[in-house]
Design a protein that fits this description.
Number of strands: 8
Number of helices: 9
CATH superfamily of one domain: Band 7 domain
Strand content: 15-25%
Low-confidence stretches: 271-278
CATH topology of one domain: Tetrahydropterin Synthase, Chain A
Shape: rod-shaped
Length: 278
């Protein structure tokens, strides 16, 4: 009889021990509610004991949470309709605040991230969304971090993932980029022509001082043409001969023929010298 009683007590003790023992993982922290009141001591990882029927354990994950923000439609400051999605990385800094101050901190963070993303879209221009994302990510992080501090949440970082544009806007941006590249190509070509003209001017000055250089250049050109093995015929003509002809040739313009009088009209009278002077 005594053995049975002792066996029953041992069984009850083992059952109570099993009901009061809890295991908290390394990446978790435990909050103990005793008769609904939060205990100040936070239970760390490992084995912890509770009072059966009195204490209630709430485990809080302390890992970084990846929260994808669904794509939000909005109109930028320069009146362009876009669709932007983002991702938020956060972790619980204070487990007590995360459990007491907000009902579901994950859902609350999702709603804050969506409203903040729509707000940042309306305050930004399209060029900022496409090329200045670092500043936008920082601004979005500050907007989300303000309410998160009261919930014991620490924002690790916020990143804008993708910006979807309408097809008409994509075509316009493509034409703009093509026009910009065409402008750069023309500027580069004009710059090359300018540099080439300066070099040719310097070469012309050198050849003018040394007439033999012009003959050497002419011979080099003949060699280059002959190397092509085509039917092109090159007849070199001395430039000095052209200059000689230009200086020593006086071309007189032919005088117009005298006017023929028409029948029935008197020939034009010659004006006197006084009339011509008048």
């Amino acid at each position: 009889m005594i053995v049975e009683i002792l066996g029953g007590l041992v069984a009850l003790g083992g059952l109570g021990l099993a009901m009061s023992a809890r295991v908290i993982k390394q990446f978790e922290q435990g909050l103990v509610f005793r008769f609904g009141k939060l205990q100040q001591a936070v239970r760390g990882p490992g084995l912890t004991m509770l009072v059966p029927g009195v204490d209630q354990l709430r485990k809080v994950n302390m890992q970084i949470v990846t929260l994808p923000v669904p794509a939000q439609d909005g109109i930028t400051r320069d009146n362009v309709t876009v669709r932007v999605d983002a991702v938020v990385y956060f972790k619980v800094q204070d487990p007590a605040k995360a459990v007491i101050n907000v009902e579901d901190y994950r859902f609350a963070m999702l709603q804050v991230a969506q409203t903040s993303l729509r707000s940042i879209i309306g305050k930004s221009e399209l060029d900022d969304l496409l090329s200045n994302r670092e500043n936008l990510n920082h601004g979005l992080e500050l907007m989300i971090d303000t309410p998160a501090l009261a919930w014991g949440i620490d924002i690790d970082r916020v990143e804008i993932k993708d910006v979807a544009l309408p097809e008409s806007m994509k075509r316009s941006m493509s034409r703009q980029a093509e026009a910009e590249r065409e402008r750069r190509a023309r500027i580069i070509t004009a710059d090359g022509e300018l540099q080439a003209s300066k070099k040719l001017s310097e070469a012309a000055g050198t050849m003018e001082e040394t007439p033999g250089a012009l003959q050497l250049r002419l011979l080099q050109t003949i060699v280059e043409v002959a190397a092509e093995k085509n039917s092109t015929l090159v007849l070199p003509f001395p430039v000095e001969l052209l200059r000689f002809l230009e200086k020593n040739t006086n071309v007189e313009l032919p005088k117009p023929p005298p006017a023929t009088p028409v029948e029935g009209q008197e020939p034009p009278k010659e004006l006197s010298k006084d009339a011509e002077q008048a």
